[in-house]
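User: I'm putting together a small comparison set for a docking exercise, and I want a reference complex before I start. The sequence is below, and the ligand is phosphoenolpyruvate. Could you produce the 3D structure with the ligand included, as structure tokens?
Assistant: Of course. I'll restate your input first, then give the structure tokens for the complex.
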Amino acid sequence: MLVILHPNMNESSEEFRRTWDYLQELQDVRIQKHIVEGNEQRLTEVYLIGNTQKIARSDIESLPAVERVIRISEEYRILGRHNDDARTTGFEYQGLHFNQSSLHIFAGLCAVDIPEHVEAMMRVLQDNSLVCTRMGAYKPRTSPYSFQGHGKSCLPYVFELAGKYGIKVIAMEVTHESHVEEIDTILHKTGNPTGIMLQIGTRNTQNFELLKVLGRQKKYPILLKRGFGITLSESLNAAEYLATEGNANVVFCLRGMKTSFSAPHRNMVDFSNVPVVKRLTRMPVCIDPSHSVGTRDRAPDGLLDIFHATAQGIVSGANMVLVDFHPEPKKALVDGPQALLLPELPYFLEDIRITREAYLKRLNAFKSQNI
Ligand code: PEP
Ligand code: MN
């Protein structure tokens, strides 16, 4: 059972104390408090865990600090929507709102290689009014002989260049808790010129110890990739690990499923799940067309398959796009063959603008039908 208190509840108030005391006295029930920092208000949610069947909803709703009560399922206790469309979604980070209505584009390098490429990338982002990017410093690779990423040695120039070009958030994969400490230290040393969204890759979706550690820190939001070979429910439960440890600022990323049936694409594009994740959870949903499609193949209509896949996600209401670009893909150390070229960025953004507008028109068309 979930008890939502009145917005901006003051915990030293009499109404809070009376409500809290009552909840603490409930038999066979453990209570857990969770704070949701929304755009305009701060919500206190109290989870009643245990034998809640015999508790009357009306009893709880009559407590002075309580706004409403929702019966929730066992699954996705914190991040789940539990059939309540009024629940707040998302979070704010670096002055940007990430929720189920917003849209942010994170175009950038799959892997950082040389400072010149990072700078060329960031310059073109600024020219196109983008304030987010992706930059891989810690790369989990299939072969131990492949380039593993520059690690902490590249962080100072990546962060400084981000500051120089007005980049507010960098999505950066981490595979070990020590990477978060390195990011934290170097951000501090360089004067916090940018922000980081910690990315958990598809290979680590069920690395439960990593999830718990990242969930315990609240400084950085998290981009969790769907596991490439597990069910959607298993991946959503992985997100819940982060939330239950304390960090509910999570974006969920669809990146395609591994199956030979996806050929000639690298993974089976799963962007039809955008509305599914939005219905089941309160997380903003990201799509990664680069790692889904994995090639620069082009349809006879002239558009790259990556453009088409992106459009499919956007027209269904995706909230974020994580996409590989590279100034010189032939020299890229990781995933060059799927990288978009810098001169393609304005066309990619225009395609997104067109499909986003189509999505918003679809919403209005349906609303005006009143069905
Ligand atoms: C990536 O985004 O660079 C990446 C490795 O993606 P994934 O974990 O989805 O394979
Ligand atoms: Mn990659």
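The longest helix spans residues 345-369. The chain has a mean pLDDT of 95.
User: Thanks, that's exactly what I needed.
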